[in-house]
Design goal:
two-stranded antiparallel sheet, 3 domains, Translation Initiation Factor IF3, four-stranded mixed β-sheet, about 65% helix, DNA binding, PhoU_dom, Methane Monooxygenase Hydroxylase, Chain G, domain 1, alpha+beta, flat, Phosphate uptake regulator, 10 helices, PhoU, SpoVT-AbrB_dom
Length: about 325
């Protein structure tokens, strides 16, 4: 850490020098322009760049299938606006994987294709993205997936179960968007300024979005389990699971309302209510376990997995409530 003394020039202008090593490393010299971003009681300084879009290049010669898909997603989440994928001879299979990965991410489109290069570009304006809207959408999708997964279980509706698994892709796309926005705020203060949110709040949204994505995963798990059931399930157990689901959704909704609440006292009260309700759910789960003891082992194990997924969804709601409490806490 280096320190500098603030000086006054011209009788009214405050000036401070910047470290030469930092200036050299960031190509700042006499005549260069820098940008200042207020952040609470801090003032962040960044070199002004003429480049509006960041470009990343990746050698995909040895990548295929899931590894290639993951590589494209990683470049996207890392914040590159233009992604150049290069190889000595890009195969048809690699091109197909790149197109599938591009279609699974919000805003990406293949811009250029040659024998040894595929260029993908993000067409969204980062200043128009809203992490709040993305998380709100994730909330609606994840809770509707959980409700429909359990409805499919009750009715043994395979079509509805398959629809739930397909909606998980929509949830994953939004999770990638939230991750991309959050990482951009860590990388540059300009991104946080364009969002109009403090970086700590972006972290809270990112943390909560992760919990919603996991709820969607458990809804998908229940849907997959449903596809393996051929005979109707006991009504007594299904009713108990419905009650458990109702309690779990109450935790999730209360926690999310607390996260979005601007009044810190109201947010704290709602978050604490959600956390207390999670403890009550544990008692309901023990009652369901008693009902499962009377079933044959295979069916009891399957329904036990369903109950566990609903319980974990409630736990994730409790995690969101914990984040809401931290968001509402006084700032040091």
């Amino acid at each position: 850490m280096e320190t500098r003394k603030v000086q006054v020039t011209g009788g009214s202008t405050y000036t401070v020098s910047i470290p030469k090593t930092w200036a050299n490393r960031n190509d700042v010299e006499a005549g260069s322009e820098v940008e200042f971003y207020p952040d609470g009681d801090s003032l962040l300084l960044s070199p002004r760049s003429e480049e509006e879009r960041t470009t990343g290049t990746l050698d995909i010669s040895d990548l295929a299938d899931r590894e290639l898909t993951r590589a494209v997603m990683t470049m996207y989440v890392s914040g590159f606006d233009v992604i150049a994928l290069e190889g000595s001879n890009i195969t048809t299979e690699q091109r197909s994987t790149i197109r599938d990965a591009t279609q699974s991410l919000v805003g990406l489109e293949v811009l250029e294709e040659t024998r040894d290069r595929v260029v993908v570009r993000d067409l969204l304006d980062s200043s128009e993205l809203s992490i709040h809207n993305a998380v709100t959408r994730m909330r609606l999708i994840s809770t509707s997936m959980l409700a429909d997964a359990l409805a499919a279980l009750r009715e043994l509706d395979d079509d509805l179960a398959r629809d739930v698994t397909q909606r998980d892709d929509d949830l994953d796309r939004l999770w990638m968007v939230v991750s991309r926005i959050f990482r951009s705020t860590l990388r540059t203060p300009k991104a946080a300024e364009e969002l109009g949110l403090p970086r700590e709040e972006c972290f809270d949204y990112h943390s909560s979005a992760r919990q919603l994505e996991r709820i969607g995963d458990h809804a998908t798990k229940i849907a997959h389990l449903t596809l393996n059931i051929d005979e109707p399930l006991p009504e007594e157990v299904l009713s108990a699971i419905d009650d458990l689901h109702e309690d779990a959704v109450e935790v999730i909704d209360t926690a999310m309302d607390a996260l979005f609440e601007d009044d810190t006292e109201k947010a704290t009260a709602m978050a604490n209510d959600a956390r207390e309700h999670v403890r009550d759910i544990d008692d309901r789960v023990r009652q369901i376990d008693e009902l499962l003891r009377d079933l044959d082992p295979a069916r009891a194990q399957l329904l036990g997995l369903v109950v566990d997924s609903v319980l974990r969804s409630a736990d994730y709601g409790g995690n969101i409530a914990e984040t809401a409490l931290q968001k509402a806490a006084p700032t040091p």
